[in-house]
Design a protein that fits this description.
Number of strands: 12
Strand content: 15-25%
Shape: globular
Strand order of the largest sheet: 1-2-4-3-7-8-9-12-11-10
CATH superfamily: Alpha/Beta hydrolase fold, catalytic domain
Helix content: 25-40%
Order of helices and strands: HEEEHEEEHEHEHEHEEEH
Structural class: alpha/beta
CATH topology: Rossmann fold
Oligomer: single chain
CATH architecture: 3-Layer(aba) Sandwich
Number of domains: 1
Distance between the termini: 52 Å
Low-confidence stretches: 1-21
CATH class: Alpha Beta
Length: 285
């Protein structure tokens, strides 16, 4: 093997250093607790750039490598933040969405995310208007809680394999509707496509996925539904796209029904990150 010339070697070391600095890990004190988040800022990001918040699943972490959103952010020019959930009584990192076993959890994650968004706006000059949130599983459930409690914080929400609990439905009194895009597999046995109104899974009673999405389509006052069968994905899965259109202020609500899809962020019949940004980008103002 030929030796690497000194200048070339220095350039490679510098490039590796810059790349490593693109995603930084920082903390923010919220409600007396030091919270951790990971922030990816693509090179040359302009002032006022959009922000996408990505929420991990139950027992997961905010490790950016688990999602693949950084590459999408680099292509399209937006910042990505991956906050870390706090631990519950089971010792699992999570988002407090009101599961029965979270009754003793005092963390207010809605408030934390509000404070995090404001912090990132002030510190990095990111847009306060063009803020989006997506999440996997428990992170997706958190999207539904945000839609009902603080829809004004977000331009659009994108739960993946998430559910809307009966408790969130009954407590929803928000007058402001937010565009929403759910991606969900019909063979998901963790967050069931058909719902779990009897709470047999222990997560609390939740709605069938099409009914939950239909609720937000109605809340956005969408007037039409368009159904398309998408090309089969690289993972071999077929996805049916249900798009509810003609809503207030041009709002839309989408549901991607992955036939035979399981509880997954990546195996959805589509490029999950690209499809999420395709939806979110419609609401950049």
């Amino acid at each position: 093997m030929k030796p690497i010339p000194m200048l070339t070697g220095l350039w490679l070391l510098l490039a590796a250093s810059v790349s490593a600095q693109e995603t930084r890990t920082e903390t923010l004190r919220s409600q007396g607790v030091e919270r951790t988040y990971h922030l990816h800022l693509p090179d040359g990001l302009p002032d006022g750039a959009p922000l996408v918040v990505v929420l991990h699943g139950y027992g997961g972490t905010g490790n950016p490598d688990r999602f693949g959103m950084n590459a999408t952010a680099d292509r399209h020019g937006f910042a990505v933040c991956y906050p870390e959930g706090e631990r519950d009584s089971r010792g699992k990192q999570c988002w407090n969405v009101g599961y029965p076993f979270q009754a003793d959890m005092e963390i207010d994650d809605v408030r934390f995310l509000e404070e995090l968004i404001d912090h990132l706006h002030r510190r990095y000059g990111l847009s306060r208007r063009n803020v989006f949130c997506t999440g996997m599983s428990n992170g997706g459930d958190m999207c539904y809680l945000l839609a009902s409690q603080r829809p004004d914080l977000f331009a659009a929400l994108g739960p993946v394999a998430g559910f809307m609990s009966v408790a969130i439905l009954r407590a929803d009194s928000a007058t402001h509707a937010v565009p929403l895009f759910e991606i969900h597999g019909t063979a998901d046995r963790t967050t069931r496509w058909e719902g779990d109104l009897e709470n047999s899974g222990g997560w609390g009673a939740y709605l069938p996925i099409p009914i939950a999405v239909g609720y937000w389509a109605a809340k956005n006052k969408c007037l039409e539904e368009r159904v398309d069968t998408l090309p089969r994905g690289a993972d071999g899965l077929q996805t049916i796209a249900h798009r509810y259109t003609g809503g207030t202020d041009g709002n839309e609500v989408w549901l991607y029904e992955t036939l035979g899809g399981k509880h997954s962020w990546s195996e959805t019949g589509v490029d999950t990150c690209e499809e999420l940004w395709r939806f979110f980008s419609r609401y950049v103002r």
